[in-house]
Amino acid sequence: MTTPFFSIWAPPAQPTCRGQAAMAVEGGMKCVKFLLYVLLLAFCACAVGLIAVGVATQLVLNQTMTRGATPSFLLPVVIIAVGAFLFLVAFVGCCGACKENYCLMITFAIFLSLIMLVEVAAAIAGYVFRDKVRSEFNKDFRQQMKNYPKANETASILDKMQKDFKCCGAANYTDWEKIPTMASRVPDSCCVNITNNCGVHFVVKDIHTEGCVEKIAAWLRKNVLVVAAAALGIAFVEILGIVLACCLVKSIRSGYEVM
């Protein structure tokens, strides 16, 4: 006697609500991990950029200002330190995301939050000490002017600054009259059309008359919006990284609770 077909056929088992939820969590976790990997690459790029900016700033300050434990010289050190620390944190985050390690991801989120706090503190310090930095630059620029006749390295640095910014002296071209051996002349880099000995017995209309301190300060004010936009972009990426790290931590913890 044959068994009816309907008695041996059964519909395929449907996934339970718990299984569907687990699949959804797994898919969401993969998406979070992918986005986190992209952000970690962005962090590495930001870290390298910060280190490069810090080193370049330190080199410029070493050439144009007198060394000392001042806010001007501490700022590049802070930038380099933040860049190196951000690279290390990105490495920790990459290891934590790859291994889905709860402790490493918590460490990543905490360190990234600390980096944001340091960056905010550096921005506040830069704003608070902006006038001090300018006065210090003015003082050091005048000191370099005094060394101009006897130091070839100093002369080349000041000449490059005056040529690039089309300026002359600290406040204006008359500052050179106070320098010994420069009473009746200005450096050739002050000339509108630079030629050999064009600064000797100069005519005012043939030289740049504006001072370099104000010219450089104006250039910094003009470019501060670019710096601010870059800083906001980095801050946004860091906040997004913290959020994604917290999401991944929550998923890892839920996985442990299920087990």
TrEMBL record:
The keyword Glycoprotein applies. Disulfide bonds join C167-C198. Keywords: Cell membrane, Disulfide bond, Endosome, Glycoprotein, Lipoprotein, Lysosome, Membrane, Palmitate, Protein transport, Secreted, Transmembrane, Transmembrane helix, Transport. One of its GO terms (biological process) is protein transport. The keyword Transmembrane applies. InterPro entries: CD63_LEL, Tetraspanin/Peripherin, Tetraspanin_animals, Tetraspanin_CS, Tetraspanin_EC2_sf. The chain crosses the membrane at residues 34-61, 73-92, 104-129, 224-252. GO terms for cellular component: cell surface; extracellular region; late endosome membrane; lysosomal membrane; melanosome; multivesicular body; plasma membrane. It holds the Pfam family Tetraspanin. It is found in: Cell membrane; Cell surface; Endosome, Multivesicular body; Late endosome membrane. It is a multi-pass membrane protein. Belongs to the tetraspanin (TM4SF) family. Interacts with TIMP1 and ITGB1 and recruits TIMP1 to ITGB1. Interacts with CD9. Identified in a complex with CD9 and ITGB3. Interacts with PMEL. Interacts with KDR/VEGFR2; identified in a complex with ITGB1 and KDR/VEGFR2 and is required to recruit KDR to ITGB1 complexes. Interacts with SYT7. Functions as a cell surface receptor for TIMP1 and plays a role in the activation of cellular signaling cascades. Plays a role in the activation of ITGB1 and integrin signaling, leading to the activation of AKT, FAK/PTK2 and MAP kinases. Promotes cell survival, reorganization of the actin cytoskeleton, cell adhesion, spreading and migration, via its role in the activation of AKT and FAK/PTK2. Plays a role in VEGFA signaling via its role in regulating the internalization of KDR/VEGFR2. PANTHER family: CD63 ANTIGEN (PTHR19282:SF471), TETRASPANIN (PTHR19282). This is Tetraspanin.
